Amino acid sequence: MKISVLLTIAFILTIIFNGCNSEENSASQAEYIEPCEPVTVVLPGYVMEPAGDTVSVPNSTSVMLYYWLPLEKFEAMEVDLLFLASVDSTILVLPVQPDQESRNHAQRVVNSLEISLSVYLADSTLMEIFEGTVLPITVLYTPEGDLFTAEGFGAPLRILEKHQTGI
Hints:
Glutaredoxin, single chain, alpha/beta, 43% helix, globular
């Protein structure tokens, strides 16, 4: 009988202490959870703005790089450029070229479309990600660490659809 009384008391104490500890643990865990720091995409090289400043990527912003052969009056390319100009501000769109002369020519091509879209100068380290690929090529870096690539005309739209659907 003494054993059953002791077991009953032990059982009741266990319930009381576990209940209290669960609430304390929940409360203490909530106190120690640190807020998520915004993540910034780090590119494998440098991108220069037309004015010569290095592009800085805002926190929690995806970056879309687009490298193409800037041909004048080439409809498929124009469709890509018009699409890039319409991408919302949650994605930093960076049409890039490997040298100043190409960048200037590409900017003239973009300007002829009467859209607001700057063309950037990429350093040789960044340009390495485009080696051995079919142009145009689009690369999307996300703050979550995902990397999406697509080649050919229509790649910017395909890559955003792939990113948004998670496929």
